[in-house]
Fold this sequence. Notes:
The chain is mostly helical. The chain has helices at about 5-35, 40-50, 60-70, 75-85, 85-105, 115-140, 150-155, 155-185, 190-220, 220-230, 235-250, 255-275, 290, 295-325; strands at about 280, 285.
Amino acid sequence: MTSADLLLIVMVIGLTAYALLGGADFGGGVWDLLARGPDARSQRRLISASIGPVWEANHVWLVFIVVALFSGFPPAYGVVGSSLEIPLAAALVGIVLRGAAYVYRAYGAGAAGPDHWWGHVFAISSTITPFALGVTGAALATGKMSTSDQLEPVRSVFGLGCGLFAVAATAFLAAVYLCKDAGASPATAHLVPVFRRRAFGGAVVCGVLALILLPLFAHEAPVVAGRFGDRSVPLVALSAVGGVAALVALGRNQFVAARLAAGLAVGGMLWGWAVAQYPDLIVGQVTVDDAAAPSPNIHAMLYTVAGGLVIVLPPMIILYRLFTRPEPVD
């Protein structure tokens, strides 16, 4: 294993952390958008309380991935930045609008305008970002991206389907996580069945989209699809087991086990894609060996990451333990 391979593994670990933590926050925005019925206000308050003061901390993992790509694989960074401007700009706009809307809705006390408008901005932008990131991932797998046609990634049916799959996966994660938060207080326990049903619905939508995407995957990304069949079947099986186990655990009100299993489901699918993508960073355009920075640069990056984790992880763990306990909801 080369130092470039090791850095790539660390980047996928960071991507997994972002998917499981930041992704669940985005999924909460999806359910905020779809909240209906007499409990809609309580659902939105629970979502907001569950995200709490830690919602912005999850972007640490995305920043790390961008910096590692720039420092460790600069040619790939250049191709991505010049060919995927539209989905990446959409993701960035979604992150910024979502953050502003959350702050104004949660802390503005009406000073910045009607609360419901900021709620709509928060919910819609929470859906835009995972969709755009899903389109970006599809473009990396197909290699159908160029500086001369910025719209190519968003015209791909496979890419759009991957965007929808990313939204469904984050919604599934959020619903599973919210079941535990709802069950943590008698004041919110009545919301457990609501989010349990949504977790089941999210899982069904993910399954249906996966079946639809399989033939498109083989047609649009034959290189990665071929490797997927050779390398990633165990990871996909692990993902399926995790998804089923999460639903079973929810049915038994075993919320911690459900969270772990849901994380396994999403993480297994993500790692299955990463293993099949290797050694290409962008299929047909850039490989790991082609794009890798000189070894001393990558070694410095790895040492910096290790030192940074020693400094960052303990306070982040404390932050999560202190502030991810939702307040009671009326």
